[in-house]
Amino acid sequence: MNWWLIVEIVYLIFLVLVCLRIIYDTRTITKTLAYLLLAIFVPVAGILFYFSFGINYRKRKMYSKKLLEDDHMSERLREIINQYSNYTLKQGGSELQSSRELAVLLVRDSQSPLTSQNDVRVLVNGEQKFPEVLEAIRNARRHIHIEYYIYEDDDTGRAVAGALIERAQAGVEVRFIYDDFGSRSIRKTIVPRLREGGVRAFPFYKIIFVALANRLNYRNHRKIIVIDGITAFVGGINISDRYYNKEGDTKKLFWRDTHLRIDGPGVQYLQYLFLCDWNFCAGERLIPDGALFPLPSGYSPKGDKVVQIAASGPDSDMPTILFSLLQAISLATTEILITTPYFIPGESLMDALMVAALGGVKVKLLVPGISDSKLVDAAARSFYGDMLRAGVEVYLYQKGFVHAKTVVTDRKVAIVGTANMDYRSFDLNFEVSAVVYDNQIAGELADIFYQDIQSAQKIDPVQWSLRPAWKKMPEKIARLVSPLL
Length: 485
Hints:
The model has no long low-confidence stretch (mean pLDDT 88). This protein has 485 residues and is an alpha/beta fold. Strands 4-3-2-5-6-8-1-9-16-15-14-10-11-12-17 form a 15-stranded mixed β-sheet, with helices on both faces. A two-stranded parallel ribbon has the order 7-13. Helices cover 46% and strands 19% of the residues. It has 19 helices and 17 strands. It has three domains: 3-55; 71-98 and 116-311, Endonuclease Chain A (Endonuclease, Chain A, 2-Layer Sandwich); 320-484, Endonuclease Chain A (Endonuclease, Chain A), CATH 3.30.870.10. Strand 11, helix 15 and strand 12 (393-397) form a beta-alpha-beta unit. The two termini are 43 Å apart.
């Protein structure tokens, strides 16, 4: 018998089945074609890569976000969220009214309530964030919930760990979720110390060797702290010394990032997200109660900001964060300011930005001039030409590495979160963003954007188009694999 012929026939049948699965399972045309080409032209390895990195978990859902087992209570809660959000929408100012479609989208898509009477503070870099975080932790009275993608064993990590242990030993319930890949440096150091000190700590989607590639692919990229159900921190800054720019330190790369502190009812959806992730990681069934979700009447209003949370990941039905960005861009009439460390936008986001620019909206994009990934940087640069031709202004940050993830539209709406503008953030990672409908916060972030571009190099469209082919070719090649990055 010709065993080699039999093997080839079996492989061909298996390849056809894999291709049919790719076509059925993959959501976007671009990624479908990329995986098909990889499976067909890279024998065996291409198929292994797809099964490791390409399975659509959104279709299957990694876990259920259902906190309430009682369907009647769940339906009643949904009605309350809708009524509360409608009331907030009617009472909101012009910045909210001009973005009502965005607010409605988030309520309908993910039942994220539109909340008022929040106090919101912009925190620039670790120098502003970490002192606020440590103070808030030390003032906790009931519980502290902390969830991070990167938590490192350094001075900053140890300072936060010490504050958490002190509160745990004082009787405060402290729950900690760390990403098992991003925070791998603390597995054998800080995590045991936290547990010995009374902190309940669990890894998110623990990496197991037999499922290494698949588990590496779906990571929890969120950075959330919730204290007593009324104070929260969210944004791009992880727990690490690299985010703290010490005065006079010329050896360390300057790290530019943005975070928010929220006090008020806007915290409650962040609490909900944490509890869903906690139940998945810890194998528990924490049930919402008055201690975890204090009623608005339980604390006096601290501010007048309207806040809503956008979150998505392999546990959500839709790519909510991508949809919220598309909606915000489409509603802008004068200006869109975007800061992102990784720009691999995909067709829908690319088209939305180009349409806005061609329609007369000023679109400005700030990206790293100093990148931490040559491949991602090359892929991002392949998109700049089309953007520049449409009238988008692209700035390359030169002072250090810009890691902030912010969008400001018309100085009325500000979006600050953990999601980069790439396929991974929109399709694979667990991400979260805070949407603030307020001209003061949006104006503050717009001013910060204009300060940042003073330390950036603006790309000249003509000079960019005249670059030699040998510079463009690596970018074109990187773009081919950009859906897989």
